[in-house]
Design brief:
Radius of gyration: 18 Å
Distance between the termini: 43 Å
Strand content: 25-35%
Helix content: 25-40%
Order of helices and strands: HEEEEHEEHEH
Low-confidence stretches: none
Largest sheet: 7 strands, antiparallel
Mean pLDDT: 95
């Protein structure tokens, strides 16, 4: 089910957004920075700080995961049932090996969450309607990113950088 292009976008993006539904029926969207391909029909990510996502999946196992390669302004949405695997499972240990190899984890991981892909669809920016091709879009966003980064740096110089004190 996963195409080579889907795999390449997931690897390049490294960040996805996961949508679940709270027990109260409200939408919840959460970024995940450890998205990986498990096999041709499954994706997974590490739960580093997602107690809400785990609660939501315990209530309703349905999840949509969106991943977009930023410069190309395109990606995929994946939908299906998710399952949560805690530390005492073989699946958890296998997921940890896939991310960290034989090394020690560099941060605590509460669970490994796997999505069984039931449906996948492309995400494509409307920029494709007016651009010659993907290369043109990538170049225009490279240039635009410089300006956006400069603006945000100016903002940080006024308000200061976010800091988390332990």
């Amino acid at each position: 089910m996963l195409t080579p292009d889907m795999r390449a976008v997931i690897k390049a993006a490294h960040l996805c957004f996961v949508a679940t539904v709270t027990p109260e029926g409200l939408p919840n969207l959460s970024p995940k920075g450890t998205i990986r391909v498990w096999d041709d029909a499954h994706l997974f990510f590490l739960d580093i700080a997602s107690p809400g996502t785990r609660v939501n999946l315990a209530h309703s196992p349905w999840m949509e995961l969106n991943v977009v390669e930023q410069l190309s302004r395109r990606g995929y949405r994946f939908f299906g049932r998710a399952d949560v695997h805690l530390e005492d499972s073989d699946f958890y240990r296998d997921g940890m090996r896939r991310v960290f190899g034989d090394g020690e984890p560099t941060f605590p991981v509460a669970a490994v969450v796997r999505l069984a892909i039931e449906r996948a669809a492309p995400l494509l920016s409307p920029a494709y309607w007016r651009a010659t091709d993907e290369n043109e879009i990538r170049e225009s966003w490279r240039v635009r990113r410089v300006g956006l980064e400069r603006e945000f740096e100016a903002h940080l110089s006024v308000v200061g950088a976010v800091r988390v004190d332990a």
